[in-house]
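User: Could you go from structure to sequence for me? I need the amino acid at each position, not a summary. Structure tokens:
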């Protein structure tokens, strides 16, 4: 959910509120793709020394830290947005790899395929729910802004296409968009905190515990 929300609305903020080019907005988002493999590599190389549970919980704490950096001001710098994207990607890289290894470790060998598939299904389901939830939060913010301006979809589209100058009142539109996206980033932060609290419930396990393959799993399938 957090990945879908950040990848969808962070470029919108950089381009629509900070009034930067689509290239700058894309670069701010690309930093997440830099942090993700860095975090995944660190998790894969360090979980034997640190432990899966510690790695999982510790890595997840980077996600709300990065979400806090997304609380930008209208005159803020896209560098801060890129830094927040980098930190969030780093935390998600650690968490995703740690979760995958943990899931495969706590099930039997013949159940690892279905367990891994369930993990991927949960991620896809979270992306779908995230798009729905954060889209609803954004629409709520656009229609219940503190100002008197109500932003329509056409105005928002024109703003993102750098055509707001022809509309007039573009500063008011940017203010409403800032308030709406700020509310959206707050909801992303709230979910990130919930994720960290939820992962504290993961019990400690022994890595490398011997698992024996049942004989029926080794026998050829019958027609």
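Assistant: Here is the amino acid at each position, in order:
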């Amino acid at each position: 959910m957090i990945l879908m929300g950040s990848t969808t609305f962070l470029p919108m903020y950089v381009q629509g509120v900070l009034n930067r080019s689509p290239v700058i907005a894309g670069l701010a988002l690309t930093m997440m793709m830099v942090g993700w493999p860095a975090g995944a590599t660190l998790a894969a190389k360090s979980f034997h020394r640190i432990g899966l549970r510690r790695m999982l919980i510790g890595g997840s704490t980077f996600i709300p830290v990065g979400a806090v950096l997304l609380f930008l001001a209208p005159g803020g710098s896209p560098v801060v947005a890129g830094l927040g994207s980098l930190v969030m990607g780093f935390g998600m890289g650690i968490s995703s790899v740690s979760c995958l290894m943990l899931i495969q470790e706590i099930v039997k060998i013949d159940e690892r395929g279905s367990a891994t598939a369930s993990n991927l299904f949960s991620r896809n389901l979270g992306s779908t729910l995230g798009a729905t939830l954060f889209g609803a939060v954004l629409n709520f913010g656009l229609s219940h802004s503190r100002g008197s301006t109500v932003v329509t979809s056409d105005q928002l589209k024109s703003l993102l296409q750098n055509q707001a100058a022809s509309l007039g009142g573009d500063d008011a539109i940017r203010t409403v968009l800032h308030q709406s996206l700020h509310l959206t980033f707050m909801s992303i932060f709230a979910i990130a905190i919930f994720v960290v609290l939820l992962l504290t419930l993961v019990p400690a396990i022994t890595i490398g515990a011997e698992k024996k393959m049942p004989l029926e799993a080794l026998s050829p399938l019958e027609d």
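One structural detail worth keeping in mind: Residues 81 and 184 are 15 Å apart (CA to CA).
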